[in-house]
Amino acid sequence: MPQYEVVGDDIQYVKVYLNPGEKIYGDAGHVVMKSDSTQMQTRMRGGFFAGIKREITGGSFFVTEFQGPGEVVFAGIFPGKIIGLPLAGNGILAQSHTFLFAEDGINYDEKMAKLTAGLFGGEGLFLAHFYGAGNVFIHSYGGLYVKNLQPGEVIQVEASHLMAMDDGMQYSIQRVGGLRSILFAHEGLFFVRIEGPGRVWIHTLTIEQLAQEIAGYIGGGTGTGGQQGGPGINVGGIDINL
Q1: Considering the domain boundaries, does residue 238 fall inside one?
Q2: Reduced to 3 states, what is the DSSP secondary structure of residue 72?
Q3: Is 186 exposed, middle or buried (0-12, 13-18, 19+ CB in 10 A)?
Q4: pLDDT score recorded for residue 111
Q5: How would you class 190 by CB atoms within 10 Å of its CB: exposed for 0-12, middle for 13-18, buried for 19 or more?
Q6: Which domain range does residue 178 map to?
Q7: Which of 222, 165, 235, 214 is closest to 193 using CA atoms?
Q8: Tell me, what's the pLDDT at 210?
Q9: Which residues of 17-35 are buried (b: 16+ CB within 10 A; e: fewer)?
Q10: Is there a contact between 162 and 172 (Cβ–Cβ < 8 Å)?
Q11: Averaged pLDDT, 157-178
């Protein structure tokens, strides 16, 4: 089976060592390098409708397959942690943007989320669904916190900080705070209520938070270091006023 090595601390990358004939597939936007001997091709994995569903969630319509022998290196787009999750017939639900790559035995599909969680959590109406036998690698934005819930144990996760959870867990959306919070708060309005048993992966940074801080330091947006107004740029799909 493929061998893996995660390198780094706050800014990580992962090396994948493929033997002849071994395959993985992933998001080409996260590929740093590959060996000349490693074959690469773009595929519509799972068929046309699976590709459409991935596109709806913010994932890629096509995936890129790599076949050994050789080495492939993947990295996240923000500082954070890379984790490999071994699946043996079970599955996980995850934000599509956190996906790096998976072994050939892992199926990559989408699963309908709770309608309100999709609308208010900012991740569309679907979540990425990985299941099968093998390893799938995902990356967090910022720090990574893993919570292992016992049967009946409940936590509330701010919607945009939910990275992944075990398939089959019970969850729903909850609004926290009244009119004052809705008018003046920028985070914490909607929490995902998740009930155990199962594992939940939470990342401490969101794209929106990062974009706001960058905007502040370069003279625009609502970050801590800047003023409103001026022309704009786009960071990670987020429009920033300069």
Answers
A1: no
A2: strand
A3: exposed
A4: 66
A5: buried
A6: 3-225
A7: 165
A8: 74
A9: ebeeebebbbbeebbeebe
A10: no
A11: 84
Q: Which residue has the tokens 């050789």?
A: 70
Within-domain flag for 232:
no
- Mean pLDDT within 48-74: 75
Count structural domains, the chain. Answer: 1
| Alpha carbons 121 and 193: distance in angstroms, whole number | 12
- C-alpha 17/C-alpha 159 separation (Å) is 35
Site of tokens 């144990």: 153
Which residues does residue 54 pair with via DSSP β-bridges, in sequence order? none
Total length of the chain = 242
- 117-146 burial code (b ≥16 CB/10 A, e <16): bbebbbbbebbbbbbbebbbbbbbbbebee
Strands (E) across 58-206 are located at 63-67, 70-75, 82-94, 99-103, 106-112, 126-139, 144-149, 154-158, 162-166, 170-175, 190-195, 198-203
Domain containing residue 105: CATH number: 3.60.160.10
* CB contact set of 31 (below 8 Å; sequence gap of 6+): 64, 72, 73, 74
Please report whether residue 71 resides in a domain.
Answer: yes
Q: Can you say how many angstroms the Cα of residue 142 is from the centroid of all Cα atoms in its chain? A: 12
Q: What is the pTM of this model?
A: 0.78
- Determine the pLDDT at residue 218: 75
200 domain-assigned? yes
